[in-house]
Structure formats: structure tokens, C-alpha cells
């Protein structure tokens, strides 16, 4: 706040006001009595209660004196006593917990407002109020009502009705009267008990109006109708994303680790993220996307978890920005809805409410039979070539690509379940490029991106076409972050915008190693062996069934190998050999090219033992000068001082 400005002065005034009210209430509770000073005290009896625009309105009867000697029979409305309309704030109403027939003492400085063309005065500034009841009256009321919570009728007043717009017609008046929510006894008396509990609830189309009228605690009596723009999962606290089995990163499916979420939009263009129940498996996320995205749903029983802004949640607002501006005109509060609104000049949302469900409530009703909403924006699918040319950062993008190779980042200071996974992908738009753009790009999958077990299992078997929905592009990288969804099937609704999405027909080509090759990329390599690092050469037997590289001697027969993972004897192990060689490459003649080469050879056991003995006298001269064909390699590092490139031979999926 600007120092000395009106907002700062108002904030100080509100703080002093809250402190004065809290001190007054504390004094009343500690003294256990009504303040003795009766000068200026307004005494009223409540006749009717309802809520309007977050204010509790009480229709009251003014009393001349405290009804200390009144009996329950005297609680009859006297026509001679004046009727007042008393306004209580949400905090004051929660403190009083008033019901009809309660007697309230309102202490100064209350104010009386006389409205034109209205016979009933309005009482405001009622912060210093106290409920007064006789002890026997209190006992009788407790027996009648018990501990049940009083349901207050809420009148939902539209802005169009408040400002009396010119195009307001009788239908709007009728709609406003229909939106009045009655107390629970009236609902049960006017509807069938077998009917849905929310059948007579008012349905609103404004998230902001619901939040302002119902507050942060949550709304139960009313619903808000929204469109589901996106369905995704967010990692729950304490969730574990992956663990390692062999060299393959797998999803941990033990315990509830992710939460199903919806990004919804109302008729005014406002967004909100709804966090639903926790899921023990993400295999259903593709089903939820197909069934719910683009459909209308009604929210009820929500409570506000957080009000977040663009600076606090860049990932959420990057997704919202990809859905802005709306594809159809949206409603504008306080303006005629018949006029055509220009949606291109509307400012993007600057805040968003994070909603969550309340236990034991009816939360989300999705109308799966209804047609797709015109407000829904399906993911815009682009080719990778087009994405690499997008200017700016933190831009959401969706694409369809072939996964060729996956690799877990080896940062030993970071726990395994928090490391990034690199997916190397390509599509027809990259494979057809002659030069200037890489034929294969790396997609970084962060630990916050929830992967389904279906995706991980499919990639562990072989190369697959994967649909990347709402990935993040920026600073020359494609990143899968929170709210990015990976699917094996393309959504039913998506806009291609003229992009070439044809599938690959021929073999995949990699870029050859050259001066433009960067670290953490894949390339093809050819050259001549000029040296071997003998100190790092080694070999070891592995299981031919599971690939376990830690075989042991069989306890029953010391001449056989045994696999603990398979619990079986290994008769035909696979010999794996690692060798670091130095190559002379024409494409990088000034660089030292060091390649870690892997070999797998299947042997009978007696041949394997002979081979292991032979490796002790392995002749380095036998490989020098040999020509190396096109090897698929992963680039570990590229340095200029010294001028060196470190690679590792890989096997594409």
C-alpha cells in the first residue's frame, strides 16, 4: 500500500475496528454479564432471517425494555411496536448464532438509515451486539433445536438486477426469484424425499459471485455451472514418483500419491482449479480426460483452499494463458449480455481460486450426455518443427511424437524419485528437415509431472507414439511439468491448425556428431579407433531372462551361476562388456572424441568362463585402426578446454 494513502488509512481503521470489537466481546465474556450502561442500547427481537450479498438481514421488532420478565406466551408480535431491518456482517452473525425469537442488544455506535419509498428503517454498524435469553427459555429452545445448524435463506441478487439494466425483462426477474434458496425444512416439505438432495438448489454461472456470496468456508445450498477445460493429476504431498528397476524408471503405485484435478471456467471467463479426491492409480486419467473435458459440470460443497496470483503460480497461469482469450464471447458483469463482446481485447485473469471438496458433501456433477460446450478449447496440436520456432518462454504446447530413447538424469545429490527423465522424441516434421533444426529433441519430464503406469510400462517395452498435452516450452527446452498429461491415444477433440501430423514411415535418422552438437542430446557417430582406455575396460555376466548383472555362484553347484531375482540357475548368461575408445572423427577433427562402448554376447557357461580368462590377456592392438559405423550415442559432455566430447553408445527403443 502507498504510504499515507487512502488504502493504508482504511486498512489501519479496519484493524482498529477489529481490535475494538474483539476487546469488547472479550470483556463481555470475562465479566459474564451484559454491560451495565444501557444508554443508547437498541433492543430487538428477531422475527425472520435471511442472507443477501454476504450480509445477514434480520427483520426485527423493536422492544422498549429488556424482556427480563417475559414468558414464552409473550413472544407475540405487537403491531404497535416498530419493525426494523437490522444488518449483521458475516463475522457478527457467526458470533451471535441467532434464530427467530432471539432478543438482541445492539450497543452504540449503531446507525439508522431511512430509505426513500421504504417504510422499514435499516439499522447498520451493529458490531457491538449481544444475544440475551432467559435461562428457562434457553433450555426450551435447546430441547427444540438441539445441536442442529440453522440454515439461512440466501437471496442471490444478480448485478443486472442491481443496476437495473435496460434490457432487463420479466424472465430475469423470474430467474432471480427462482434463485432464492429456502431453509432445509421448506426443501424437504416441497419435494420428494427420493429426489436428489441438490435438485432444488439454485444454479449460478459465476465463480466469483459464489465465492463472494458464500465465502471461504464453502457453499452447500447453491451450485455453480462451469465448463471443464482440462483434467489432470497433481502429485500429493509425500508422494513418490518413481523408482528404478534395472535401468528403467518406473512409477511407484503404492499408496495415494496423486490427486485428480479439474481446470474449470465459468460463463464470465473466470478460471478455477478444483482438487478432487486422491487416486491410488493414474491409469484412469485418460478415461477422465475423454469423458469430462469440454462438458458442463455443477460444483457444490466446495471450499476455498487458496487464492493464488500469477506471480505465485506461474505453471497454473501458463495453462490459463493458453486458453485465453475465450473462443466465444463471455459475459461481462454490469453490461448488456445481448451486445457482441470483443474477446480479443479482454485482459487475462490475474488471480485464480483453488477449490477443494468438503468431506461428506456432494461435490461435482458432470453431465456426460450433454454436448461439448462452445467455451471449451481443445489442445492445439503442433508439429515439433513449429514448436521449436515459437518465440517467448513459458508457452504451453501439445504435440504427437515418437519416443526413441529415455534416460534418467544421474544427479547423485538428488533422490532417485525426484530426478528428471529425458525422453528423446521426433516426428515427421523433424525427420524431413534438411538442416538447421535437430532431427531429435529432448523432452524433460520433471518429478512434478505425474506419469501413468500405462505410459511407463509402454515405454519400457519399446518405442511408442505418445501425445504430450500442455507441455511447457521456453528457453529452447520442452518440459513436462505439473498439469502436463501424457497419453497413448490422441484426444477425440484437438485442433491441428494445419500441422503435418503424419506418422513416421521409414527408419529414424539421427543428426551426426558435428560442431553444433550439445550435451544431453543424441547423435549418430562414425570414425576410426585411435586409442583404448585399458584401465576402464571390464566385462560381467548377466541373466538372460531379467538382465540382472549381480549373478552369484549356485550354492548346490559352484560351477553354475544363480540369479536371485529369478531364483533360477542361469545356463546361458549374456556377457556384457564395456570399453572406452578414442575415435578420430572427420566432423570434429580438432576434438578428442571418447566413446563408452557396450557389447552383449550370449554364451554357454563353459565358453563364458573361457572368455573371462581370455580377457585378462586382451590385445588392444586388435581394435586400433578399425572403422566404426554409425553408432547411436548419448552425449554426456562437450568441453572446449580441453576440446573433448564424451559419448556413450545407446540402443534406441
From TrEMBL:
GO terms for biological process: double-strand break repair via homologous recombination; regulation of establishment of protein localization to chromosome. It holds the Pfam family DUF4503. Residues 1-113 form the DUF4502 domain. Residues 265-652 form the DUF4503 domain. It comes from the Eukaryota. One of its GO terms (cellular component) is nucleoplasm. InterPro entries: DNA_repair-scaffolding, DUF4502, DUF4503. This is SPIDR protein. It comes from Atrichornis clamosus. The lineage of its organism: Eukaryota, Metazoa, Chordata, Craniata, Vertebrata.
Amino acid at each position: 500500500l502507498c504510504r499515507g494513502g487512502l488504502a493504508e488509512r482504511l486498512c489501519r481503521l479496519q484493524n482498529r475496528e477489529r481490535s475494538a470489537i474483539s476487546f469488547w466481546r472479550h470483556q463481555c465474556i470475562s465479566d459474564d454479564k451484559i454491560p451495565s450502561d444501557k444508554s443508547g442500547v437498541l433492543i430487538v427481537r428477531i422475527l425472520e432471517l435471511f442472507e443477501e450479498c454476504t450480509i445477514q438481514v434480520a427483520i426485527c421488532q423493536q422492544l422498549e425494555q429488556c424482556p427480563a420478565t417475559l414468558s414464552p406466551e409473550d413472544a407475540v408480535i405487537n403491531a404497535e411496536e416498530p419493525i426494523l431491518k437490522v444488518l449483521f456482517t458475516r463475522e457478527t452473525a457467526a458470533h451471535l448464532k441467532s434464530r427467530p425469537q432471539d432478543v438482541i442488544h445492539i450497543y452504540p455506535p449503531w446507525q439508522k438509515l431511512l430509505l426513500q419509498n421504504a417504510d422499514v428503517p435499516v439499522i447498520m454498524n451493529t458490531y457491538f451486539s449481544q444475544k440475551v435469553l432467559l435461562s428457562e427459555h434457553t433450555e426450551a429452545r435447546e430441547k427444540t433445536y438441539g445441536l442442529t445448524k440453522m440454515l439461512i435463506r440466501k437471496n442471490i441478487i444478480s448485478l443486472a438486477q442491481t443496476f437495473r439494466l435496460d434490457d432487463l425483462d420479466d424472465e430475469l426477474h423470474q430467474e432471480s426469484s427462482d434463485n432464492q434458496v429456502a431453509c432445509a425444512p421448506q426443501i424437504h416439505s416441497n419435494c420428494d424425499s427420493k429426489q436428489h438432495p441438490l435438485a432444488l438448489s439454485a444454479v449460478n454461472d459465476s465463480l466469483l459471485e459464489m465465492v463472494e456470496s458464500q465465502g471461504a468456508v464453502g457453499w452447500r445450498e447453491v451450485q455453480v455451472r462451469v465448463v471443464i477445460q482440462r483434467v489432470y493429476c497433481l502429485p500429493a504431498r509425500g508422494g513418490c514418483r518413481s523408482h528404478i528397476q534395472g535401468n528403467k524408471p518406473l512409477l511407484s503405485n503404492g499408496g495415494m500419491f496423486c490427486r485428480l484435478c479439474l481446470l474449470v471456467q465459468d460463463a464470465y471467463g473466470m478460471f478455477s482449479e478444483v482438487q478432487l479426491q486422491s487416486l491410488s492409480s493414474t491409469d484412469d486419467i485418460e478415461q477422465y480426460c475423454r469423458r469430462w473435458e469440454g462438458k458442463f459440470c455443477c460444483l457444490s460443497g466446495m471450499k476455498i483452499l487458496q487464492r493464488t496470483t500469477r506471480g505465485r503460480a506461474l505453471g497454473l497461469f501458463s495453462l490459463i494463458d493458453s486458453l485465453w482469450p475465450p473462443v466465444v464471447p463471455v459475459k461481462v458483469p454490469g453490461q448488456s449480455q445481448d451486445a457482441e463482446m470483443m474477446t480479443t481485447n479482454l485482459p487475462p485473469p490475474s488471480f485464480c481460486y483453488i477449490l477443494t471438496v468438503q468431506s461428506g458433501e456432494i461435490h461435482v456433477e458432470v453431465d456426460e450426455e450433454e454436448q461439448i460446450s462452445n467455451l471449451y478449447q481443445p489442445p492445439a496440436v503442433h508439429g515439433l518443427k513449429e514448436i521449436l520456432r515459437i518465440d517467448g518462454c513459458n508457452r504451453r504446447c501439445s504435440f504427437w511424437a515418437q519416443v526413441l530413447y529415455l534416460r534418467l538424469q544421474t544427479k547423485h545429490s538428488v533422490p532417485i524419485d525426484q530426478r528428471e527423465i529425458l525422453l528423446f522424441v521426433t516426428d515427421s516434421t523433424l525427420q524431413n528437415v534438411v538442416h538447421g533444426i535437430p532431427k531429435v529433441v529432448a523432452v524433460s519430464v520433471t518429478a512434478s509431472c505425474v506419469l501413468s503406469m500405462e505410459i511407463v510400462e509402454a515405454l519400457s517395452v519399446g518405442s511408442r507414439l505418445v501425445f504430450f498435452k500442455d507441455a511447457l516450452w521456453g528457453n529452447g527446452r520442452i518440459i513436462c511439468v505439473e498439469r502436463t498429461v501424457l497419453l497413448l491415444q490422441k484426444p477425440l477433440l484437438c485442433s491441428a491448425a494445419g500441422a503435418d501430423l503424419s506418422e513416421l514411415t521409414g527408419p529414424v535418422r539421427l543428426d551426426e556428431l558435428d560442431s553444433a552438437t550439445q550435451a544431453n542430446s543424441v547423435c549418430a557417430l562414425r570414425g576410426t579407433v585411435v586409442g583404448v582406455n585399458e584401465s576402464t575396460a571390464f566385462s560381467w555376466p548377466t541373466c538372460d531372462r531379467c538382465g540382472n548383472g549381480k549373478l552369484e555362484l549356485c550354492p548346490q553347484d559352484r560351477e553354475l551361476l544363480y540369479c536371485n531375482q529369478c531364483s533360477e540357475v542361469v545356463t546361458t548368461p549374456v556377457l556384457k562388456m564395456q570399453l572406452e575408445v578414442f575415435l578420430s572423427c572427420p566432423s570434429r577433427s580438432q576434438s578428442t572424441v571418447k566413446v563408452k562402448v557396450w557389447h552383449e554376447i550370449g554364451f554357454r557357461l563353459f565358453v563364458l568362463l573361457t572368455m573371462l580368462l581370455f580377457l585378462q590377456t586382451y590385445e588392444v592392438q586388435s581394435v586400433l585402426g578399425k572403422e566404426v559405423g554409425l553408432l547411436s550415442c548419448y552425449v554426456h559432455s562437450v568441453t572446449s578446454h580441453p576440446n573433448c566430447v564424451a559419448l556413450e553408445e545407446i540402443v534406441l527403443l
